[in-house]
Amino acid sequence: MLSIRGTLATKASGGNISAVEKALALKKAIDLFGFEEEEVRREIAPLVDVPPSKEVIRNYISLAEADEALKDAVHFGRFSASQAFLLLPFKAADRLALFNLLQNLSANFNETKEILRNISDLAKLQKRPIKEILGLEEIKGILPDETLSRRQKAENIRQILKKLRYPCLYETEEQLRKRIKALALNPAVHLAYDPSFEKEEITISLKVENENKLACALKSLQAALAAGKFAKIFSLLRGEDRQKG
């Protein structure tokens, strides 16, 4: 026990260690040195700068048991540990397929979480394997498109999955975007809405530098209001004409 504590303390003091090294250290503490989970949480986790949470420690131990390709990507900084943790609950074959998809995208943590949730939901709803969902033409055709950046690919896949998973919600959002564009508001005006459409309201904010710009912004709002364009937006938010386009 003193040996592993000393080794870990020396390694940690010598510089940063990767999430994979931390994961392997925690697993070795259990497998080779016989530490109980509570001892790992209390005594070993602090040595490798891992939060002493049962859930976090189990994530690290699962990472130590994950595919070598995933561990290499995390170890060398090509894939974040937080994103890898999101993949761990999936079966090995699905996890590898999803990892291969995500490697080609510049998706942040929240986007990755959304993508994985929608793929998982679609697989359950359609009673199809995850690999079949990933093989859909709408998704498969995006990755080899060299005209798109990794960031654009991530956004396109997010929108496709949203459309497949929530077709009515997606269509409503598309209609709302068109109606907001039709307002022809001054660039100083920003309009926001609840993306879940649970609230029948909008938020309007202005960012101006002087009175003239404020007057122009207000004029564009008044013009849109007088033309009845805001009425169409509120009608859509109330669900009165979501099928009319």
Task: Give a short summary of the structure.
Helices cover 63% and strands 4% of the residues. It is mainly alpha-helical and 245 residues long.
Write structural notes for this entry.
With 245 residues, this protein is mainly alpha-helical. It has three domains: 65 residues; 89 residues; 66 residues, no CATH class. Helices cover 63% and strands 4% of the residues. Strands 1-2 form a two-stranded antiparallel sheet. The radius of gyration is 25 Å and the shape is elongated. The model has no long low-confidence stretch (mean pLDDT 90).
Features of this protein?
245 residues; mainly alpha; 3 domains; 2 strands; elongated
What topology does this entry show?
Layout (H helix, E strand, L loop, with lengths): L1 H12 L5 H13 L5 H8 L9 H11 L3 H8 L5 H7 L4 H12 L5 H18 L3 H5 L2 H4 L9 H16 L1 H16 L6 E5 L8 E5 L4 H16 L2 H9 L8
Antiparallel strand pairs: 1-2
